[in-house]
Amino acid sequence: MKKIILISCFIAFWASAQSQYIAEVLEYKPAPGQLINESPWGVASSATSIVGGVTGTLTLGAWGGYVVFRFDEPVQNHPENPFGVDFTIFGNTLPDWSEPGVVWVMDDENNNGEPDDTWYQLAGSDYYFSNTKKNHEVTYTNPQQATSANVPYTDSDGLSGYIYSNSTHTQPYYPLAENFPNIPEESYTLSGTRIFPEVDSTTFMTKVYKRAFGYADNQLRGTEPWTTPDNPYTNEKENAGADGFDISWAVDANGNYVELDEVHFIKVQNGILAHGGWLGEISTEICGAARVIPNAAISGREKIIALRDLPSIIHRHTVQLEALAFDRGRLMEGAQLAWNVDMDGASINQDGLLQLTQSGTLTVTAALASNPEISATATTTIDLGSGIAENTALQLDVFPNPAADEINVHATNGQLQIFNARGQLVQSVRPGKQPIGISHLPKGLYILHLRENNAVRTAKLIKK
Fold this sequence. Notes:
The protein is mainly β. The protein has one helix at 2-18; strands spanning 24-29, 58-59, 66-70, 75-76, 87-91, 101-106, 120-122, 133-141, 151-155, 160-163, 187-194, 243-245, 250-251, 262-263, 265-270, 285-291, 303-307, 313-314, 318-320, 323-327, 330-331, 337-341, 346-348, 353-356, 360-368, 371-382, 398-399, 406-409, 415-420, 425-429, 436-437, 444-452, 455-463. The model is unreliable at 1-16 and 386-393 (pLDDT under 50).
C-alpha cells in the first residue's frame, strides 16, 4: 500500500510540474528563413518540441512567422505573481543578439476551446515608438527553386526586398508543401506589428540589442526553477531568465489597455524584418514557455525607461531622440524626462532633439525626472566628417540617379559606403570600372560616402 501511495504522489507531482509548460501547439505558420524545411528547427514536427518543457527547437522564420499554443489551464492574471509576470517564454537569445518576437494573448470568450476570438497584443517597450508599424503586411513569393535561393517579398508600404540565402543552409527557404500544406505554394501574406531595432553591422558579429521589455527571444536564460521569472524592468538575471509577460500589458486594436483576468491562447510572432549579415535573417526562436507560480514575497522595481535605439554611427548634425516611461509595463503618459549627454559639441533640447557639432563617442541618457535612478542609456559614434560631408566641393557624382539596378561612380579607389535613411550601413564596396549592383536594396533614399585619401565625398541616391 505504501508503494502505491508513493507512486500516486509521484504521478501527481509530475502531472503538476508538466501543467506549468505548454500543453499543445495549435498552429505553426513560419515565414521563409534559413532554418525552414530543415530539422530540428523548421519542420512541422519542430512545433511539438516546445511542448512540456523549455528546451525545444522552433524557428518562426523571417518577419510575421508565428506559433499559437496553450497550456492545459488558463493563464491567470494573478495579483501575487512575481513582478506581475504571468508567464515566461524561453528563446535562443545570445549576448547582443536579440531576435524579438511580438506576443499576443486571447481569452476563450465563446468557450469553444478554439483560438477564434480576439487577439490582444501585449504592448512591449517598442509598441509606442513612432517608427513601429501596426497592421503591417508582408507578402513572400516562392522562388520555385529546388535548392536555396533568395526569397522575394513586398510589404504594405510598397517596399520590396529579399530573405537572403546563404551557403550554410542549402535547402529551399520558402515553406514547402510537404512540411506546411496549409501555406500556399505560390505566395502568402503575413500581417502583424513590425518594430525597428537598430541592426549594428559595423563589426564582424552583427548586433541587435535587447528590447527594454515585452518581447520573446529577447533575454538570456537563467537557472531553474523555470516557473520563477526575472524582473522584466531591470537588467539583472535573478531567476529563470528568459522573457516574462504580464497579461496587464494587453491592448486592443486602438492601443487602449484592456483588463483580462485570464487568457487561454498565446501567439508569438517575429516582429523584425532585417538581415543579420552572415548570421542570416533575424528570426525569432522559441524553446518553450512556463506559467508562473504565484509568490507575493518576490518583488522589485516596477518602473523602466525605454530609449529608442540610436544608429551605431551618426553622420547627421541633428537626430530626433525618443524615450518612454513605463510603470509595471504600462505607459506613463505625460511623464517628464531628463536628458543628458557626455560629449562636448552635443546638446539636447526640451523636445528631445539631439544637436551635434563635432565627431566623437557619445552616450545619451534619458531619466525619469521625478526619479533619476530610473534611466536608460545608449552609446553611439558621431562621424560628421569634420565638415566634409557638407562641403559642396566634395560631392560624389553618381549616375544614373534615380537608379533601379546598378549605379556608376566617378572613382576607382577608396571605399564606398551606402547608408539607408535611418543611418544604417547597408552596403560597402570598393569602386572600380564596373557598375555597382543595388537591385537588392529596398526603394528609398540612400546616402553614399566615398572615403579616399583622408577625405569623404558624399551623394544622395534615390533607389526606385
